[in-house]
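To close the section, here is one more complete example, presented without commentary so you can practise reading it yourself. The ligand is ribose-5-phosphate.
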Amino acid sequence: MKSRLLFQLTETHSLYNPLLVALDAQPGDAIIRYFPDQETYIRILSEVKDCDVYLLCSLNQPNKKLIPLILFTETLRQLGASRVNLLCPYLAYMRQDTVFHPGEGVSAKYIATLFSQTFDSLITIDPHLHRYHHLDEIYTIPTTTLHATIPIAHWIAKHIQHPIIIGPDKESEQWVAEIARHIQQPYLVLEKTRLGDKMVSTSLPHLDNYQGCQPVLVDDIISTAHTMIETVNHLAASQSEPITCIGVHAIFAEDAYEKLRNSPTQKIVTCNTIMHPTNEIDVSVLFASHQIYD
Ligand code: R5P
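Output:
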């Protein structure tokens, strides 16, 4: 087996140490800094020739990470790395997966083309697959999609005695159904209409059959948090059990976290795909299987 190196780009990530163990890799050493004009300086200090290199980079706030990621990969190739694999716990640009209005492009496809030209493989967690059902529909490199559903299910089973798991929109059914099945608890899926970047409306949850159950909202992404807040407000108006919001990817754009905290939500919990104080669900276990890296 070729020796493996793992680099983390642009930020310290709690998945880095578990990944070193899972990959049986050496820590990669590099300098990444920004010139006064904000161009990126990269110097790779580890010997990478003939190595299988893994780059850990979660792509929240993607625009400031993409150029460093591409420059880093090109530098690795120039230094003779045999493979460069992207470990991307949160994969950005997946929501623009179709032309919604005339004149738009399909960003998910363009990023897939760019990444397929740049990397040898991609491993990610719960990418926003809606109109695409599998990353292979747009990626030409091998991809692995891991799912946070079981760690989320374990968290719910441990912390909430009688949950009713609620997905705020049709896309969330893939997560809530699987979580509910795993812990044998009921679930509901609502209808959502997006009226703008920061405006959504969700249908009213009907909880008549779930008296005494605690609502647990589960969504893949919490970005502006308007999807969660809208649903939480409906729930608070119709029942009095404490409400928990669980997101896989804690984007929390702008003041979204504050807004959600100020809503009638009792607890906000996320997975550690994106570093955030709400990271209570550790997904490092998903990377433990060696088969992922063969
Ligand atoms: C969209 O379909 C996703 O599954 C999430 O519901 C959405 O990204 C949440 O966005 P926001 O937090 O801005 O409402």
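Once you have examined the tokens, check your reading against these statements. The first strand starts at residue 4 and ends at 8. Residues 63-78 form the longest helix (16 residues).
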